[in-house]
Amino acid sequence: MVKNKEFKAGLYAVVAGVVVAAALVAITIFAFTQRYTAFSPEKVAQVYVDTIAQTGDGYNAYKNTLVSKNQKFGDFIIDAYMKPYINDGDEVEQAEFVGTGSDEESAALDNVYNTMYDYYVKLVNTYGLDDYDSVFSNYFAKLSEVRKEVYGDEYMDSDYMFGAFESNVSKYGQSLTGTQRTFASDDKTIIQEESTGLYQTMFGTEQDVEVEALVDGKKKTVTEKQLVYKFTTTVKECTELSEDEVKAYVSEYEKRIKPVAESGEAKADSFGLQDTTKEKKILFFTKTEEINNKSAMISAFEQLDCSQDITAVDKCTVEVALSDSTVIATQEVYVVRIGNSWYVDNTNVDTSALYFAK
Q1: Burial (Cβ within 10 Å: 0-12, 13-18, ≥19) of residue 98
Q2: What angle do CA 300, 302, 304 make, to 5 degrees?
Q3: Confidence label for 89 from pLDDT (cuts 50, 70 and 90)
Q4: How far is residue 202's CA from residue 322's CA, in Å, rounded to a whole number?
Q5: Mean pLDDT to the nearest integer, 319-348
């Protein structure tokens, strides 16, 4: 049975140091591997499928797709989906408990994150992350409502929105993979309990595993019975399309992407976004600051169109298998070359088979 653990924002201060250190290492590794992964169509296809299969993380898989070709994925989300809800000017008052580190602030953050987690799972089950437009559009609209209800203010910035969304993505992954018991630096304070994930229940076999546990008030390594599984993703076939096939493929891609790329202005108008200026005083000087909310949204969608830059296309078949070689999913992926780099064409893929929890 899956043991779902609620996110505890009150532990954030304790965990922050460990998370930051781990993030720095992860960023360095990601930057290095991403640089060379992009040169191989097989590797791009494999990493894309592996990212989703391991933790149901269709969100971070987009870093390997055409969405991230002309803009950073985070910038795209801010400009295309967060702009209508950002309300972080100096004149916008936040709830009095914000920034205090109090139990009240922790409780409010827990409330928002847990409420949004249930909504995130609903969105994933309804749309799947192949339809990122529906997921992001609905998620941030709901988050704006929940923030007002819980905090009693109308403040919203991109950091807060990313914090909620990425917390939900992480929690969803942990509900599938399970979690290990984690200790603080004092080797006696447990900052994360052990839990059994759905994938462990579905695919795992009981094995003896060495884990850290609290014994006589101290952290020690002990042996426990756990359900263990392992997914392996392998590219079984990668076929290069002929010159005529590439032309036909790009033509079809253009038909898919053009309506999306041209939708930015209508979306901006539906939210009433405008490009404005704001006077900002800095010491004895007054600076005019441009706030290009409408232009940013239009540009974010326009940059999705890569139809003029694609020079090659490969069709790859990727298998997801257990350690005993049992194949549990087969995913077809089209990867396209632009310059010297390859990207997954996210407009032509159905990854529903990779969400084993459905």
Answers
A1: middle
A2: 80
A3: confident
A4: 11
A5: 97
Dig out the tokens for 35 from the structure: 């640089």
Round to whole Å and give the CA distance between 58 and 124. 9
Q: What is the pLDDT of residue 23?
A: 46
What are the pLDDT digits (tens) for 246-265? 999 999 999 999 999 999 99
**For a pLDDT cut of 70, what percent of the chain falls above it?**
87
pLDDT of residue 38: 84
What is the dihedral sign for C-alpha 168, 169, 173, 174?
negative
Q: Which of 19-28, 166-175, 195-204 has the lowest mean pLDDT?
A: 19-28
Residue 26, pLDDT > 70, answer no
Q: What are phi and psi of 60, to 5 degrees?
A: -75, -20
At residue 278 the predicted structure's pLDDT band, cuts being 50, 70 and 90, is: confident
Could you tell me the sign of the dihedral formed by the alpha carbons of 253, 255, 64, 339, in that order?
A: positive
Residue 162's nearest CA partner among 150, 170, 151, 154 is 170
Taking the C-alpha atoms of residue 190 and residue 215, their distance in angstroms, rounded to an integer, is 12
CA distances to 94, 227, 273 from 88, rounded to whole Å, are: 9, 46, 15
The structure's pTM equals 0.86
Whether residue 327 contacts residue 49, with contact meaning beta carbons closer than 8 Å, is answered with no
Spatial separation of the C-alpha atoms in residues 101 and 263, rounded to whole Å? 42
